[in-house]
Amino acid sequence: MRYRIPFFLLLASILIVSCTDLATMRTSQPIAPVRDYEILLVGNLEANYIGDENCLTSCHTHDKIATDFKPSVHGDQISEDTGLPLVNCESCHGPGSQAVEHAAEKKTCDFKTLLPIAEFPAQAQSMLCLKCHSAASTPNLFSWNSSVHALNDVSCFDCHKLHKGVEQKVGRQEQEELCTGCHTQTKMEFSQFSHHPVPEHKMACTDCHDPHSSTNRKNLKGVTSKALCTRCHMEYQGPFVYEHADVTEECTNCHRPHGSPNEPLLEVSQPFLCMQCHAGHQGRELASLSSPTMKQAFYTRCTDCHSAIHGTDIPSAHGRGTFIVR
Fold first, then answer.
1. Hey, which of 86, 103, 147, 299 would disulfide with 213, CB 3.0 to 4.6 Å?
2. What is the dihedral of CA 249, 251, 254, 259, to 10 degrees?
């Protein structure tokens, strides 16, 4: 006779193993106190600040970087009081006197004396930006440290390229590839038959989501999905005299936001989507139809007759109430 493990014991063992794995994942790369990251950013205390011109002229390999940086959002900001850049090379890389000290002899800079930014953990990399932007970009970054991206080791440098281009951030053409590199489930949804045109670059992820964090679920830019969706789909905004109760707040009750095999982005194809709430046409309604063709028409697409499913100001023309039939 084989011994059978009770189901609740099996479930408990799975939970214990899962919790242990999760604990290991988090402790393998623990998030350090902010104070520790601040110490990393102090830089070489024996070096002095020398300014952009000394940094760039001492090592000609920076020419392309200088060309890209000067017309950028950061490079274009000059202090009215001093006439100096508000942001320069040393704002991020630390004091550079030791880096260029023997540049003429060695024909190259000693980059090891600068901050090893590429080796910093993601939280420390973000701290470089937050030194200024925690105040300058409020409310965009006021909750960055507690955001889902920061907690999953995504840094500012993953999206913002300070040495590339004028805007210094990932362009709309590149967002889909960048975001779906982590969000693989979403990438699969965009490959469905019906989808928002993000892979075609007619939309970008940041049209709907705030990557820096949001007080709304899924980092949405709207308090509800309807508030967000009706920014583009304004014809469904309402309010209407006759409303479909389930769609007054949440479009996602019926639609998938990224993609679906059912047109148009429906969770389930018609009529089965509607029949999750509505019983459909049965009994006397079928018996009253004399045409076999009309009988077969039921349980196809509800919107063939109920075309104003999002709401309407026009009552039913059949005197049968407000069945959102236009």
1. 147
2. -160
- Answering whether pTM is above 0.85, one says no
What pLDDT, in 10s, does the model give residues 21-59? 444 444 556 677 778 888 888 878 888 998 888 888 877
List 242's β-bridge partners, or say none.
312
Give 262's strand partners.
266
The whole-number average pLDDT for the span 7-27 is 50
**Angstrom distance (rounded) from CA 26 to CA 152:** 10
Hey, what are 166's tokens? Answer: 């004028």
Cα–Cα distance measured from residue 215 to residue 207, given in angstroms and rounded to the nearest whole number: 16
What is the per-residue pLDDT across 147-182, written as a single tens digit (0 to 9) for each? 889 888 899 999 998 888 788 888 888 898 999 999
Residue corresponding to tokens 């320069």: 88
Q: In sequence order, which ranges of the chain are alpha helices (DSSP H)?
A: 7-28, 34-40, 52-58, 63-69, 89-93, 97-100, 103-106, 122-136, 148-151, 172-180, 184-190, 225-229, 284-287, 292-297
Tokens of 17: 């193993």
Place of tokens 């982590």: 182
Nearest of 257, 256, 235 to residue 309 by alpha carbon:
235
- Distance, in Å, from the CA atom of 32 to the CA atom of 35, rounded to the nearest integer, reads 8
| Length of the chain, in residues | 326
- In order of 70, 122, 131, 140, 269, the CA distances from 136 in angstroms are 20, 21, 9, 9, 48
Name the nearest CA neighbour of 163 among 280, 249, 58, 64. 64
Q: Which two tokens stand for residue 284?
A: 């006397």
Pair 231, 162: CB distance under 8 Å: no
Give DSSP secondary structure letters for 62-96: GHHHHHHHTTSTTTT-B-TTT-SBSS-HHHHH---
Residues 6+ apart with CB under 8 A from 114: 43, 44, 93, 94, 96, 99
Domain ranges of the chain: 38-158
